[in-house]
Amino acid sequence: MPIVLPKQGASVNLASFSAIQGHRVAETAVNIERVTESVEALKTGFEAHRYICSDQISTAVYLAYHLRKPVLIEGPPGVGKTELAKTAATMLGLPLIRLQCYEGLDEAKAIYEWKYGKQLLYTQVLKETLEEVLQGARGFAESVSRLHEFGDIFFSEEFLEPRPLLKALREEDGCVLLIDEVDKSDHEFESLLLEILSDFQVSIPEIGTVKANREPPMVFLTSNNTREISDALKRRCLHLYIPFPDADLEQRIIHARVPEIPPELRRQLVTFIQELRDLDLKKVPAISETIDWARTLLLLHTETLDPDLVRDTLNVILKFQEDIENVDVEVPVLTNKAVKT
User: Using H for helix, E for strand and C for coil, what is the string for 33-100?
Assistant: First the structure.
């Protein structure tokens, strides 16, 4: 929720401002308590935010919240894994902190790093005032001792640059931490995650252990199954697999995301997509492609599917030219089946 500050020149009543903020925090807490009171309440909350989910998904989120366990969400690309975390943050009124994983990701980009520029500037200032710092020191040992006192500042909170994982732990009232596409990272990075996933803390050698504030983050990890996730990471998480939806669920999703599309056209396009997923393709269309296609057909003022229209818009739902060429010959049969079913 945005904070509205007074206009320039207006007097600031800090007590009133703090009271407003406290009231907002209390409102958020009440909302979270209401939304998470049952599996059904969570499912209803997701639907109110246009995320249509199964009982399995809402149950996993319910358990994750109350057991304070991370959720590892696996499944093919485009089935709503990332969207689940984003919608949960919106629904619970919590900030979303996202870490996008990639090969070579390390602690400097994920947990913390030092503000090297600021350290360098501090070194220059210290050098220029060295005589003043050492004034009155007796002998080499005392001079070194004094320098060590100033040297410790280099690796203090003042020079620490928090990255997503550390930021999530420092959120006073909790947050949703999304570790997206963890399967794209290296096995070494998985090891960095184990401490935060089990104890909601990270160890910084120069400072010590940083624990989560009052409310630990609600953690979602997503994986497209491009590689096997380690057993150590899986043991620390609840597991949730999101498959492609059946026809009824996909129609509900399209209705929630593109409510303007006519019911009959919605039925036809979902039937076509469901048939398409049974073909041998390099990449079958996911829910995200179905939604894009629904918006495309709506934009083109389509009332019913026909082979020519389908061919002209195949690039919206198929991402490889080889797939488009293979499906092209099947378009009349698939379109006819979708229209007449």
Answer: HHHCCCHHHHHHHHHHCCCCCCHHHHHHHHHHHHHCCCEEEECCCCCCHHHHHHHHHHHHCCCEEEEE
State how far the Cα of 315 lies from the Cα of 74, in Å rounded to an integer: 26
Q: 154: which DSSP letter? A: G
CATH class, range 14-109+163-241: alpha beta
Q: Which residues pair with 72 in a beta bridge?
A: 221, 239
What are the phi and psi torsion angles at 309 (to 5°)? -65, -40
Give me 100's structure tokens.
Answer: 């996008």
Alpha-carbon distance of 51 to 57, in angstroms, equals 11
Give the domain ranges of the chain. Answer: 14-109+163-241, 112-160, 247-340
Q: Which residues are CB-neighbours of 67 under 8 A, at least 6 positions away?
A: 238
User: Nearest 5°: phi and psi at 209?
Assistant: -90, 130
Verdict on whether the full-model pTM lies above 0.85 = no
What's the start-to-end Cα distance of the chain, in Å? 47
- List, for residues 160-216, the tens digit of each pLDDT value: 888 999 999 999 889 999 999 999 999 999 999 999 999 999 988 888 888 988 789
Sign of CA dihedral 295, 300, 306, 307: negative
- β-pairing, 201-204 vs 208-211, is antiparallel
For the stretch 10-30, pLDDT in tens is 444 544 434 444 445 555 565
